[in-house]
Amino acid sequence: MASADVKTTVSEGGLRYKSKTPGSPFKASSSFSGATMSCFLCGKHRPRSLMQTKRVLGKAQPVCAPSCKELEESLKGS
Questions:
Q1: Phi-psi category of 35—alpha, beta or left, where left has phi over 0 and alpha has psi -120 to 50?
Q2: Which pTM was predicted?
């Protein structure tokens, strides 16, 4: 299996890769409710509306609602 050679070089300032596209893979939103958060359990980024807070290891953490598996199945089904 051959793959294309990617030449990644650091700019003179050392801050950016020349081959990396600028920006974030997550959409920018001026509204707080449109932001995404990562689930503490599965690590996937979800909109805040699909998250809930549960107490994990003594702290309140954002997790998928109702569970990671159920949410993934419902998103694949639609």
A1: beta
A2: 0.55
